[in-house]
Structure formats: C-alpha cells, structure tokens
Amino acid sequence: MIYSHSRLSSFEQCPLKFKYRYLDKIEPKVQQSVEAFMGSMVHNTLEKLYKDVKFKKENSVEEVIEYYNKLWKEGWSDSIRIVRKEYKEENFRKMGEQYLRDYYKRYYPFTDGKIIGIEKKIMISLDKKGGYQLQGFIDRLMSTGDGEYEIHDYKTNIEVPQVEYLKKDRQLALYAIAIIEKYQDAKNVKLIWHFLSGNKEIVIEKTDEELEKLRKDMIELIDKVESEKEFKQKVSALCNWCEFRDICPEWKHMVKTENLEPNKFLEDSGVELVNKYAKLNDEKKEIVEKIDKELEQIKEAIVKFCEREKVNSLNGSDYIARLWAKYVAKFPGKNDEKRKIINNILKDNNLWDELSELDAFKLSRIYDTLPPEVIKKLDEFKKMEMIERVYLRKKNSWQTP
Prior knowledge:
This protein is an alpha+beta fold and about 400 residues long.
C-alpha cells in the first residue's frame, strides 16, 4: 500500500475507519460532510485562480465567486451531511464565498513569486532504500528565488489553531522533505498555512534535525499500521463527521434509530432495553442515596450512644457494632497552594520515593513514624481531625472481646 499523510492520520484518528476506507474499500452512504464539501469547493476555486495566473489570465473577484457558486451548484447532493443542524446549506456556501473574497482582497494580483506547481503530486522517501514512501499533493508550490521555496496550504477550518499546534503538524513538513530532495537548489523551505476563516497566514520553517526525526516517526507509524491486527474503533468528537457511522459498532444503532418517529423509536427493542436499564439504574441511585443518608444518621446515633455510655461496642441481634474513633493528621489537598511546600519538604528528606507523590491519607498514616525534624516542619500544615467509623461483625465470627 502507498501511504499518504491523510491515510496515516486516519489510522491514528480511528483504526476501524482506516480499515473500512482503505482495506475493505467500503463506499460510504454519506459521501462527505458539508464542511469537507465547502473546503473542496474553495480549494478547487483557488486552484483555477492560480492556474489562470500562471497563464497570465486575470480574474475579477466576481468571476472567482461566480466560478465557486457554479461548482457548488453542480456538486451539491442531499447525501452531504450537515452535523450542525442549526445551520443550512446556504450558511456554508456563504462562508466559503466570504473566505474567497477576503483571500482575493489580501493577495491580489497573486504575483508574489513563481508558481512551480498547483495541486502538485509528490513522492516522499522516508528511508534511503525506498522501502517507506508517502505520496501527497501540495496545494501550491512557489519559488521566490535564491533557493527559497514555499509550500502553501489552504485551510477552511472554522477555528484558527495556535502556532504551537502547527509546529507539530506533519503534513507540510513531509512535503518539505520531498522538495529538498527533488530540487537541488532548495536551500530553505517555508511552510505557509492560509486559514481562510480568519484571513490569517502562518509561516513556519523546519530544521534538518526536525525533519530527520519526522522521518523516523513516520516509519514507526507505518510499521504500527502494518502490524495492526484488530483495527478497533476509537471514539472521539470527530465521530460526528465520520462517513462510516451507519456501520460502526459504536454508532450503528444510533444512526438506525435517531430519525425514527417517536412511536417507532420507542418500539425498537434496543431502545426499550436501554430505557429499562436507565430507569432501574436511576431507581437504584435513589434507593442507595436514601439508605446512605439513613446509615449516616444511625452512625451518628451510635457514636453519641457510645460516648454517653462510655463503651466501644454495641450488641445487636445478629451483629456487634464496634466504634473506631481516632484523631488523625490531615494535610492540604491537591489544589491547595501549601501542597508544593509539603512536597519539597518530603523531597529534601528523601521521603518522596516512598510516597511517590503526596498521598495525604498515606502521609497521615505514617506521620508518627517520620523523623522528628520532618514532623516539626510538617506540623504547621497539619490539622487534627476526628475520624469516626462503625464496623460490623457477625456474632460468633470471632471471639467477643
């Protein structure tokens, strides 16, 4: 199999989706989401724009928008999925139109550098023997002279990611590897993202060390894909946009029932089972909460009785209740600012390995066994708290005290 960055990313996103699409080659009923469709229409429009620029043909912004709307009308299908139900097809079409208007205004007359390729197919060799190869398509490859190359990529994401996120992005960095190998004069390659929703341009450059590490990481990922046996589904927010929801074990029943009429929905045997289970589970919670509340009240009554009668155990018909009461040292919790100071005290006295991290309960238990100098330092953070517990034992299960 010839891999691409998108194929490998699909595996990371969900191994089962990868299997459906690339191994089983299943044709999905839902071809794509409206976001993906809008992105394709914008990409295709910009592709034509720059092809015309290369052939010295200038398009007005209205001609660009007219071409975009023509593509939209010809390509739209009712099978395209709109996840955000509060929006309609027209909302997304207008979004793409605005992206193109903003882009045109910012970059006109589109003559910054020489166009080397548009939707340019490249092969990326990850190892010297050529055993690991990827293919990809560069939205637009430019040269600005003196060995300077630019890889441009158009993004129609609604949100513009932070630069730190893009520094970890692999796709354009992989393309840079191919450009450096293909063009002998390539001294420097700039990775340029155009986030059309925010009319933002982000530029990043990679070091030789970063590109070499990327080669190794991608080889490891390909090995992982090749050795995969199970291809299990991975549930995430991205499932909402997956084209295989109707056959995925995680979502199949939901897709089958989500658009049913109320009566038919309730008649579905799976829905009926879930509703029964949920009802009983809620009833159980109510009963447990009620019992826990009563148990706490009785426990308080036992404690008061034992204190009043000066006894530790109470006799019942089948059980004996024994009161355990003790003052224990209590220390600040994880969100308390004083926690760091305590951590440092334990580290300075070589107690950190024993505790791994500050476990307040464990520290309370071993507190009296700590070295005197440590106890002295911890005392200012300690609060003594009375812990009272009631233990039951069945009569004759062991000797009466």
